[in-house]
Amino acid sequence: MSGYLYVLFALISFGASIAGAICGIGGGVIIKPTLDAFGVLSVSTISFLSGCTVLGMTCYSVIKGKMSGESLIDMRIGTPLGIGAAIGGVAGKSMFQMLSDMFADKDMVGAVQAACLLVITLGTLIYTIKKDQIKTHHITNMAACVVIGLILGIFSSFLGIGGGPINLVVLFFFFSMDTKTAAQNSLYIILFSQITSLLNTLVTRTVPEFTIWLLALMVFGGILGGMSGRIINRKIDSKVVDKLFIGLMVVIIGINIYNIYQFMH
Hints:
Layout: H1 3-23, H2 28-38, H3 43-68, H4 75-102, H5 106-130, H6 142-159, H7 165-175, H8 179-203, H9 212-235, H10 238-264
């Protein structure tokens, strides 16, 4: 891989993590399809690098929020959601491995991931635009939280996006959270799913091939983006966050349409 791509991938991780920290989408939902579009690394390698980058960013954001006393994480809801996401992270990783083994042509795996992400992102965009007209709920049952977290973990790990926009929709709809509270709780859930997904990859020895410098640059870019995103998030209101989120969804939809076409040809 050319040297300039290392820098470019680090910059993508940085920019995506800024947006991810502001909106609570983790950044992987931007990193994964964007890197897929370059077509220079395998689908499994990009999923792994994206997951590690998101893990670095969410670790920083969650720990920094707790230490500064600015955390909006609802532990009574967030922790069972996170536990469910941790279990789902393992299940989603296993599903991805099964899908990868099923297709000799690995581009088909990328096409399936891109198609799933396209449907989820489109649904998220429609919900976000219409959310003021939709009645929300306030679930507090721990078992229900674990099940919801399990589903979120499966999606995030299978798609290699960390958590993405689906987390926010679930937190809006099932828990009536405002935008900024949902963003922080989303990062907390992503942290659980990405830790178990990484551990599962290490234990099962399914770590794909990559250079350690690329991983280091992307994780560093992710953490730096998380730091910048936290600063920006404190200075803007929820309406601006909503507009940024909608804009990102439109861009991600476009990238996924391109990726589906690219993988299928």
